[in-house]
Amino acid sequence: MEVANRLMVKGKSALETEQAAVRVLQSLFPPLLLVLYKALLAPIANGQLAAMMLARATAISCQWLMGSCSVNSVTLPDGKSWSSGVFVEKCKYLEESKCLGICINTCKLPTQTFFKDHMGVDLYMEPNFEDYSCQFVLLLIAVQLRGAASTS
User: Fold this and answer.
1) What residues does the Beta-carotene isomerase D27-like C-terminal domain cover (predicted)?
2) What is the tally of structural domains in the chain?
3) Is residue 10 situated within a structural domain?
4) pLDDT tens figures, 83-104
């Protein structure tokens, strides 16, 4: 929480906070790994393989931060079910901060940006501010945005 609080320092805009959080996420990976993942794995099967792999890696490697989580199936707009979701039962990060701004600006938006820009996989996160759960839906946001644009 110390890092999150430092990211939310007074005078910083939401965008500056998001960009700083993305840099923190980038620093956790060897640079070549991100480049190769995005170039070689993300394009396979329209991102489905990369989304499945990221869901599993996230569920395994992020429990120290988020708490108990598991891979689950999500329904895509075309009606197909795909095991590219991660359900966080009770996010320790959100529960400890109890702050919508910290959740949105130092976790949700930066993580979505990081996955898309640096790993080549679309992600939509749905935090529940009542029970502190969070649903990650990988491979969905681009499809949703296209669908929303075509119905407006």
Assistant:
1) 64-137
2) 1
3) no
4) 999 999 999 989 998 888 889 9
* pTM, full prediction: 0.83
Beta-strand ranges (E) seen in 3-129 are: 69-75, 81-88, 123-127
Q: Distance (Å, rounded) from C-alpha 129 to C-alpha 119?
A: 27
pLDDT digits (tens, 9 = 90+) for 122-148: 999 999 999 999 999 998 544 444 444
Q: Which amino acid is at 76?
A: L
Instruction: Give the side-chain half-sphere CA count within 13 A for 94.
Output: 23
Name the phi and psi angles at 72, rounded to 5.
-140, 170
Single-letter residue type at 115 = F
Spatial distance between the Cα atoms of 106 and 24, rounded to a whole number of angstroms: 10
What are the E-state strand segments in the chain? 69-75, 81-88, 123-127, 134-138
Q: Is residue 3 a part of any domain in this protein?
A: no
